[in-house]
Amino acid sequence: MSRLFLLRHAKAEWAEPGQRDFDRALAASGVEDAKALAAAMVERGLLPEKVICSSAVRARQTLDAINTVHDLSALTSYDQNLYATDAPGYLEVAAKSGFDGNLMLVGHNPMLEDVAIALAKDGDEALVDDLQMGFRTSGLAVIALDGPMADIEKLSGRLEAYLTPAGS
């Protein structure tokens, strides 16, 4: 069974004058939130087997913070498309990964929220309601898919978990 892990980058600093959005760094609280989330992932056994991360600075730094708790670096590749694309683009990245198993995409809103809501047609009602209230920074949605990752654009799934640093 394939599971898609959708991780929104942690809380970032506001852009400095003249700074590109792509280059925004994490806030100190974002680093701590990512570490707390990683600890919850380990505790619950919610661990990806492959990671594709946006190449934006804040997404990379989120993954760096997670790696201090549970090292995923050997499983990780980076894809600039996760910064600039839309929700269908996220599905395309997952489909083209060639991976069936626990795949994690580290990226940005509103794309992650759109993908999660589109795929999570089933699951604990409270979790689904929480997700639909907004995909929080350092939020992780884990969706069990009803088919192979290559067919993700045609699939639906079940929301198995929605973790946030405060609620982990």
From TrEMBL:
InterPro entries for the chain: His_Pase_superF_clade-1, His_PPase_superfam
Any Pfam family: His_Phos_1
Protein name: Histidine phosphatase family protein
Organism: Oceaniradius stylonematis
